[in-house]
Specification:
243 residues, alpha+beta, nine-stranded mixed β-sheet, four-stranded antiparallel β-sheet, binds uracil
Protein backbone atom coordinates (compact mmCIF):
# COMPACT_ATOMS: atom_id res chain seq x y z
CA UNK A 1 0.00 0.00 0.00
CA UNK A 2 1.19 3.54 -0.76
CA UNK A 3 2.01 5.59 2.30
CA UNK A 4 -0.23 8.47 1.18
CA UNK A 5 -3.20 6.09 1.01
CA UNK A 6 -2.51 4.79 4.50
CA UNK A 7 -2.16 8.26 6.01
CA UNK A 8 -5.26 9.54 4.20
CA UNK A 9 -7.22 6.54 5.48
CA UNK A 10 -5.97 7.22 8.95
CA UNK A 11 -7.39 10.74 8.93
CA UNK A 12 -4.42 12.85 7.89
CA UNK A 13 -6.46 14.56 5.16
CA UNK A 14 -6.58 14.08 1.40
CA UNK A 15 -3.70 12.63 -0.58
CA UNK A 16 -2.71 16.23 -1.38
CA UNK A 17 -2.68 17.13 2.33
CA UNK A 18 -0.59 14.04 2.99
CA UNK A 19 1.97 15.15 0.38
CA UNK A 20 2.45 18.40 2.30
CA UNK A 21 2.58 16.48 5.58
CA UNK A 22 5.34 14.26 4.24
CA UNK A 23 7.34 17.32 3.26
CA UNK A 24 6.78 19.19 6.51
CA UNK A 25 6.53 16.56 9.20
CA UNK A 26 8.60 13.71 10.39
CA UNK A 27 7.03 10.62 8.84
CA UNK A 28 9.13 7.51 9.30
CA UNK A 29 8.83 3.90 8.15
CA UNK A 30 10.77 1.50 10.37
CA UNK A 31 12.63 4.52 11.71
CA UNK A 32 13.63 5.99 8.33
CA UNK A 33 12.32 9.41 7.28
CA UNK A 34 10.11 9.16 4.17
CA UNK A 35 9.34 12.17 1.98
CA UNK A 36 7.75 10.67 -1.10
CA UNK A 37 4.05 9.89 -1.16
CA UNK A 38 4.63 7.03 -3.62
CA UNK A 39 6.58 5.05 -1.03
CA UNK A 40 5.11 1.57 -0.58
CA UNK A 41 4.64 -0.02 2.79
CA UNK A 42 3.35 -3.32 4.07
CA UNK A 43 0.77 -2.40 6.72
CA UNK A 44 1.13 -5.81 8.39
CA UNK A 45 4.82 -5.48 9.18
CA UNK A 46 6.11 -1.93 8.64
CA UNK A 47 6.00 0.52 11.53
CA UNK A 48 4.84 3.95 10.38
CA UNK A 49 5.20 6.96 12.68
CA UNK A 50 4.07 10.57 12.32
CA UNK A 51 6.07 12.79 14.68
CA UNK A 52 6.70 9.76 16.85
CA UNK A 53 3.06 8.56 16.97
CA UNK A 54 2.74 5.01 15.67
CA UNK A 55 0.03 4.58 13.04
CA UNK A 56 -1.75 1.32 13.50
CA UNK A 57 -3.46 0.59 10.24
CA UNK A 58 -6.49 -1.60 10.16
CA UNK A 59 -9.09 -1.80 7.46
CA UNK A 60 -11.99 -3.00 9.58
CA UNK A 61 -13.30 -2.33 13.05
CA UNK A 62 -15.53 -4.64 15.08
CA UNK A 63 -17.29 -3.44 18.21
CA UNK A 64 -20.03 -4.73 20.47
CA UNK A 65 -22.21 -1.83 21.59
CA UNK A 66 -24.46 -2.11 24.64
CA UNK A 67 -27.22 -0.10 23.02
CA UNK A 68 -29.29 2.08 25.31
CA UNK A 69 -32.93 2.93 24.67
CA UNK A 70 -33.47 6.19 22.75
CA UNK A 71 -30.98 5.61 19.92
CA UNK A 72 -31.93 4.51 16.43
CA UNK A 73 -30.05 1.82 14.49
CA UNK A 74 -28.88 4.02 11.62
CA UNK A 75 -25.71 5.87 10.68
CA UNK A 76 -27.16 9.40 10.32
CA UNK A 77 -30.45 11.05 11.11
CA UNK A 78 -31.64 14.66 11.10
CA UNK A 79 -33.65 14.44 14.30
CA UNK A 80 -32.75 11.32 16.27
CA UNK A 81 -29.55 10.23 17.98
CA UNK A 82 -28.03 7.21 16.24
CA UNK A 83 -26.05 4.29 17.64
CA UNK A 84 -23.03 5.58 15.69
CA UNK A 85 -23.08 8.75 17.84
CA UNK A 86 -21.98 6.51 20.73
CA UNK A 87 -18.63 5.72 19.07
CA UNK A 88 -15.48 7.81 19.46
CA UNK A 89 -15.51 10.60 16.85
CA UNK A 90 -12.22 9.43 15.36
CA UNK A 91 -13.61 5.92 14.73
CA UNK A 92 -16.73 7.47 13.15
CA UNK A 93 -14.68 9.66 10.80
CA UNK A 94 -12.03 7.18 9.75
CA UNK A 95 -13.91 3.91 9.48
CA UNK A 96 -17.48 4.90 8.57
CA UNK A 97 -19.01 2.17 10.73
CA UNK A 98 -22.61 0.96 10.63
CA UNK A 99 -24.77 -1.32 12.77
CA UNK A 100 -25.26 -4.97 11.78
CA UNK A 101 -29.03 -5.33 11.63
CA UNK A 102 -31.40 -3.26 13.70
CA UNK A 103 -32.72 -2.91 17.19
CA UNK A 104 -35.81 -0.76 17.79
CA UNK A 105 -35.29 2.68 19.32
CA UNK A 106 -36.60 1.43 22.69
CA UNK A 107 -34.68 -1.89 22.62
CA UNK A 108 -31.45 -2.25 24.57
CA UNK A 109 -28.58 -4.66 24.28
CA UNK A 110 -26.10 -6.19 21.91
CA UNK A 111 -25.52 -4.45 18.61
CA UNK A 112 -22.52 -5.27 16.47
CA UNK A 113 -20.92 -2.23 14.86
CA UNK A 114 -18.47 -2.65 12.00
CA UNK A 115 -17.44 -1.37 8.59
CA UNK A 116 -17.05 -4.91 7.23
CA UNK A 117 -19.91 -5.27 4.76
CA UNK A 118 -19.20 -8.94 4.13
CA UNK A 119 -19.59 -9.73 7.81
CA UNK A 120 -22.81 -7.74 8.06
CA UNK A 121 -24.18 -9.69 5.13
CA UNK A 122 -23.08 -13.06 6.57
CA UNK A 123 -24.72 -12.36 9.94
CA UNK A 124 -27.98 -10.94 8.60
CA UNK A 125 -28.57 -13.11 5.54
CA UNK A 126 -31.88 -14.96 6.20
CA UNK A 127 -30.44 -18.17 4.79
CA UNK A 128 -27.77 -18.29 7.54
CA UNK A 129 -30.43 -18.35 10.30
CA UNK A 130 -28.07 -16.82 12.86
CA UNK A 131 -29.68 -17.27 16.32
CA UNK A 132 -30.46 -14.11 18.27
CA UNK A 133 -31.44 -14.29 21.93
CA UNK A 134 -33.52 -11.66 23.68
CA UNK A 135 -34.33 -11.12 27.34
CA UNK A 136 -37.73 -9.50 27.88
CA UNK A 137 -40.34 -8.43 30.41
CA UNK A 138 -43.84 -9.33 29.28
CA UNK A 139 -47.09 -7.82 30.46
CA UNK A 140 -49.06 -11.00 31.16
CA UNK A 141 -48.55 -14.52 32.39
CA UNK A 142 -46.34 -16.41 29.93
CA UNK A 143 -47.17 -20.12 29.98
CA UNK A 144 -46.13 -23.45 28.53
CA UNK A 145 -48.77 -22.99 25.83
CA UNK A 146 -46.80 -19.94 24.61
CA UNK A 147 -43.61 -22.04 24.63
CA UNK A 148 -45.37 -24.57 22.39
CA UNK A 149 -46.89 -21.87 20.17
CA UNK A 150 -43.48 -20.25 19.62
CA UNK A 151 -41.92 -23.64 18.96
CA UNK A 152 -44.57 -24.46 16.36
CA UNK A 153 -44.55 -20.94 14.87
CA UNK A 154 -47.06 -18.13 15.37
CA UNK A 155 -48.83 -16.06 12.74
CA UNK A 156 -47.88 -12.37 12.77
CA UNK A 157 -50.28 -9.51 11.97
CA UNK A 158 -49.25 -9.59 8.29
CA UNK A 159 -49.98 -13.33 7.97
CA UNK A 160 -46.32 -14.43 8.15
CA UNK A 161 -45.77 -17.67 10.09
CA UNK A 162 -42.61 -17.54 12.18
CA UNK A 163 -39.95 -20.24 12.17
CA UNK A 164 -39.51 -22.38 15.24
CA UNK A 165 -38.33 -20.28 18.21
CA UNK A 166 -37.09 -21.25 21.66
CA UNK A 167 -38.97 -19.58 24.52
CA UNK A 168 -37.62 -20.03 28.06
CA UNK A 169 -39.77 -18.79 30.96
CA UNK A 170 -37.55 -17.32 33.68
CA UNK A 171 -40.48 -16.05 35.77
CA UNK A 172 -44.20 -16.31 35.13
CA UNK A 173 -46.45 -13.72 36.81
CA UNK A 174 -48.54 -10.66 36.00
CA UNK A 175 -45.23 -9.39 34.61
CA UNK A 176 -43.21 -12.33 33.23
CA UNK A 177 -39.52 -12.61 32.44
CA UNK A 178 -38.41 -14.65 29.46
CA UNK A 179 -35.60 -15.43 27.06
CA UNK A 180 -36.47 -15.97 23.42
CA UNK A 181 -34.16 -17.24 20.68
CA UNK A 182 -35.16 -16.64 17.08
CA UNK A 183 -33.28 -17.36 13.86
CA UNK A 184 -34.86 -14.69 11.67
CA UNK A 185 -35.20 -10.92 11.90
CA UNK A 186 -38.57 -9.64 10.77
CA UNK A 187 -39.51 -6.06 11.63
CA UNK A 188 -40.39 -5.81 15.37
CA UNK A 189 -40.37 -9.60 15.40
CA UNK A 190 -40.24 -10.29 19.15
CA UNK A 191 -42.92 -7.70 19.94
CA UNK A 192 -45.16 -9.01 17.17
CA UNK A 193 -44.68 -12.64 18.25
CA UNK A 194 -45.96 -11.78 21.72
CA UNK A 195 -48.83 -9.78 20.22
CA UNK A 196 -49.74 -12.96 18.32
CA UNK A 197 -50.33 -14.66 21.70
CA UNK A 198 -52.13 -11.59 23.13
CA UNK A 199 -49.27 -10.30 25.27
CA UNK A 200 -47.15 -7.17 25.24
CA UNK A 201 -43.38 -6.75 25.46
CA UNK A 202 -42.64 -3.99 27.98
CA UNK A 203 -38.83 -4.27 28.06
CA UNK A 204 -36.58 -5.82 25.44
CA UNK A 205 -32.85 -6.45 25.42
CA UNK A 206 -30.76 -8.52 23.00
CA UNK A 207 -28.19 -10.60 24.84
CA UNK A 208 -26.70 -12.81 22.12
CA UNK A 209 -26.15 -12.91 18.36
CA UNK A 210 -24.51 -16.03 16.95
CA UNK A 211 -21.49 -16.66 19.17
CA UNK A 212 -21.25 -13.06 20.33
CA UNK A 213 -22.66 -12.29 23.76
CA UNK A 214 -23.35 -9.14 25.70
CA UNK A 215 -21.30 -9.44 28.86
CA UNK A 216 -22.70 -7.96 32.05
CA UNK A 217 -19.54 -5.92 32.62
CA UNK A 218 -20.22 -3.69 29.59
CA UNK A 219 -22.14 -0.60 30.79
CA UNK A 220 -25.15 0.71 28.87
CA UNK A 221 -23.92 2.97 26.06
CA UNK A 222 -20.38 1.54 26.12
CA UNK A 223 -18.48 -0.33 23.43
CA UNK A 224 -15.88 -3.07 23.50
CA UNK A 225 -13.76 -4.65 20.80
CA UNK A 226 -14.50 -8.22 19.77
CA UNK A 227 -12.39 -10.91 21.42
CA UNK A 228 -10.04 -13.14 19.42
CA UNK A 229 -12.59 -15.98 19.69
CA UNK A 230 -15.43 -13.76 18.44
CA UNK A 231 -13.26 -12.50 15.55
CA UNK A 232 -12.54 -16.10 14.57
CA UNK A 233 -16.27 -16.81 14.55
CA UNK A 234 -16.85 -13.77 12.30
CA UNK A 235 -14.09 -14.86 9.95
CA UNK A 236 -15.64 -18.31 9.74
CA UNK A 237 -19.09 -16.83 9.00
CA UNK A 238 -17.67 -14.71 6.15
CA UNK A 239 -15.69 -17.68 4.80
CA UNK A 240 -18.77 -19.90 4.73
CA UNK A 241 -20.82 -17.17 3.10
CA UNK A 242 -18.31 -16.85 0.28
CA UNK A 243 -17.84 -20.63 -0.20
N1 LIG B 1 -37.66 -7.69 17.94
C1 LIG B 1 -38.30 -6.55 18.25
O1 LIG B 1 -39.51 -6.51 18.36
N2 LIG B 1 -37.57 -5.45 18.42
C2 LIG B 1 -36.21 -5.43 18.34
O2 LIG B 1 -35.59 -4.39 18.54
C3 LIG B 1 -35.56 -6.63 18.02
C4 LIG B 1 -36.31 -7.74 17.82
Amino acid sequence: MRIDKLLAHYGYGSRKDVKTLLKQKNVTVNGERIKTSKFHINPDVDIVEVNGDVIQYKEFIYYVLHKPSGYISATVDDREQTVIDLLPMRAQQIYEPFPVGRLDKDTEGLLLITNDGKLAHALTSPRREVPKTYYAHIDGRVSESDVKAFHDGVTLDDGYKTKTADLVILKSGTISEIELTITEGKFHQVKRMFEAVDKKVIYLKRIQMGEISLDDALPLGAIRELTEKELNYCEQMVGEQEA
